[in-house]
Amino acid sequence: MMLFLLWFKVKQPENISQRQLMEIWKKEAEAALSAVKAGKIKGLYKVSGKREVVAIIDVNSHEELDEILETLPIMKELGHSVTVEVTPIHPYENFYELMKKLS
């Protein structure tokens, strides 16, 4: 299990309308909610008041993470307008066990 915190920031390109952006985002939401049901996404949150989404994803490898990111509907259609911050994370319980071992 490899967990990553993904922070997506979407900027609306000047050449597409609000309606077009929402259509693309709807496709992305459908794909994301399917991934939640499949257990690949462990947490999925919309940042209030911003065009941002935060996800916690479970992958088997760095290559799988790259593949997932490159095949997202929003990346295929708006990749140049989406920034993704990727941060590796692990359960706090694991950190606690490490602290017990090291202290």
TrEMBL record:
What SUPFAM superfamilies does the database record attribute to this sequence? Dimeric alpha+beta barrel
Q: What residue stretches are annotated with the Muconolactone isomerase domain?
A: 2-93
Q: From what superkingdom does this record's organism come?
A: Archaea
* InterPro entries on file: Dimeric_a/b-barrel (IPR011008), MLI_dom (IPR026029)
Q: What is this protein called?
A: Muconolactone delta-isomerase family protein
